[in-house]
């Protein structure tokens, strides 16, 4: 008989303080969004918790996600054998990565899963408290809409980013599909049970697959004003566009907002299978998106990052890049800002 393989065991999640190539850990799945499908593979993430702490987990196998979801739906703790602890891509700390050989079993440990789920329930917070929450935490906020960003198509779904504010600060929230036209500028809402996510060390809110609600409320009064001009000037001074790997311009359907393909002039045809409407191509709204390679200063250290830009932001970034190529100074660019 072969020798039974042993793995370094994590007794409590709060003991995780460094990378481990192969480990076993026990916990309860308190959050498990559906599988996301990329161009070449699937991906899922979630949150594993015990009485001491919680940790993000990621995987690339739909079958593993289904098995975890069975334990999650039945409130049964799990034991993960042969998974890896890696530095988190969501910010500071660490995360669990499930490997091809990771085994998922019922844990022999007893856990008060109901209490763990209560701890993971939505917290009523102000926007300046978002940074103190962890990724995948749920939050409820009372806010006012200060800016509606342009609606876009992401993975075949409609999405809109919205800038919100309260008396403590501002933040971004992402809404999807049937909710993209739910909110209006200068109107107050309770965003109930939204999920905390993080991008480039900045926390934001997004609608969860289940449970999130948008409720109109009485005006919340004065809010922190968005300093758009200051942000734009900071962008001009500290960020350089060093490459544009991807640039796309397209028009959206007058009915469903999906991409419209040009036909025999002056017509265009919606590309969405359940729409396919013929329409005047010249009357469709034009959208611009780009993938940008950026260089920026971080406390004197020069760093690079790739980012996506859409609509008006994308156009402004490209205009800045063109001005710089023409040799304009930072002061001249700020005066010429569109």
TrEMBL record:
SUPFAM superfamilies, alphabetically?
Answer: Nucleic acid-binding proteins
Instruction: Specify the domain of life of the species encoding this protein.
Output: Eukaryota
Gene3D superfamilies in UniProt: Nucleic acid-binding proteins
Q: What is this protein's name?
A: Uncharacterized protein
**Provenance organism:** Geodia barretti (Barrett's horny sponge)
């Amino acid at each position: 008989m072969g020798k039974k393989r042993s793995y370094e065991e994590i007794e409590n999640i709060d003991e995780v303080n460094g990378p481990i190539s192969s480990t076993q850990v026990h916990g309860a799945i308190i959050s498990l969004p559906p599988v996301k499908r990329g161009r070449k593979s699937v991906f899922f993430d979630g949150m594993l918790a015990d009485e001491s702490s919680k940790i993000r987990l990621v995987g690339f196998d739909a079958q593993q996600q289904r098995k975890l979801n069975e334990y999650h739906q039945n409130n049964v703790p799990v034991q993960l054998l042969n998974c890896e602890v890696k530095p988190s891509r969501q910010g500071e700390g660490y995360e669990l990565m499930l490997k091809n050989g990771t085994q998922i079993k019922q844990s022999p440990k007893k856990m008060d899963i109901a209490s763990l789920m209560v701890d993971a329930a939505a917290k009523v917070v102000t926007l300046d408290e978002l940074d103190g929450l962890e990724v995948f935490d749920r939050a409820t906020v009372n806010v006012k809409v200060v800016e509606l960003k342009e609606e876009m198509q992401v993975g075949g779904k409609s999405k809109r980013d919205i800038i919100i504010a309260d008396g403590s600060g501002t933040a971004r929230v992402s809404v999807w599909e049937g909710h993209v036209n739910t909110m209006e500028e200068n109107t107050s809402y309770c965003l109930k049970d939204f999920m905390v996510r993080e991008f480039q060390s900045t926390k934001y809110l997004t609608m969860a697959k289940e449970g999130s609600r948008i409720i109109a409320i009485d005006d919340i009064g004065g809010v922190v004003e968005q300093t758009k001009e200051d942000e734009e000037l900071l962008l001009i001074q500290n960020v350089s566009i060093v490459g544009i790997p991807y640039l796309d311009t397209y028009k959206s359907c007058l009915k469903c907002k999906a991409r419209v393909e040009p036909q025999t002039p002056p017509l265009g045809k919606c590309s969405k299978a359940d729409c396919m409407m013929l329409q005047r191509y010249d009357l469709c709204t034009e959208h611009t998106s780009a993938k940008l390679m950026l260089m920026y200063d971080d406390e004197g250290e020069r760093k690079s990052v790739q980012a996506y830009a859409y609509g008006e932001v994308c156009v402004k970034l490209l205009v800045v890049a063109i001005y710089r190529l023409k040799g304009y100074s930072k002061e001249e660019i700020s005066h010429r800002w569109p």
